[in-house]
Amino acid sequence: xxxxxxxxxxxxxxxxLGGCASIPNTPEFNPxxxxxxxxxxxxxLKIIQGSRTEQNIAADMHPAYCNGQVLLKRxxxxxxxxxxxxxxxxxxxxxxxxxxxxxxxxxxxxxREFLKKVSDMILDSDFTPWQRDDDDDSVFIYPMTFxxxxx
Length: 151
Known about the structure:
Layout: H1 6-22, E1 46-49, H2 54-77, E2 85-93, E3 99-107, H3 112-124, E4 138-146
C-alpha cells in the first residue's frame, strides 16, 4: 500500500468503526421470546413523581409492550391498517401496584382503537407493589415504539 494513503485509510477506518459502534443495537421483536427479554432500562422514560426505579417500571410495562406489538400485527392482518410509530403514555401507579390512570401524551400512531386497547392493557396490568413513602403514587411518561416486525 502506498505510504501516503496509509494515514488516510486508518483515519477512515476509525471513523467508520466509531460510527458503527454508536448506532444502537435494537433487537428485532420476537413474539415467542419477548416476555422473557425484560429490559433493565427504558430509553426516554421520564419519572415525574414517586420512588419507583427505572428498572421496576421497565419490567412492569414490558408485557403491555409485547402484547401491543402482537396487537399491531393482528389489527393489520384483520384489514384495519395501523401504522407503526411511537406512543408516549403518562401512567399513574399506586404504591400497591394498581394502575390508576393512563393518558396518551403524544402519538405517531393514528388508530384510536389501537391506542385505546394498549392503554387498557396498561390500565389492567398489575405493577409490583412498592414501598410506601411520602410520594405514594408514581407518575411517569413511558415511550413505546411499535414496529412492523412481521414484514
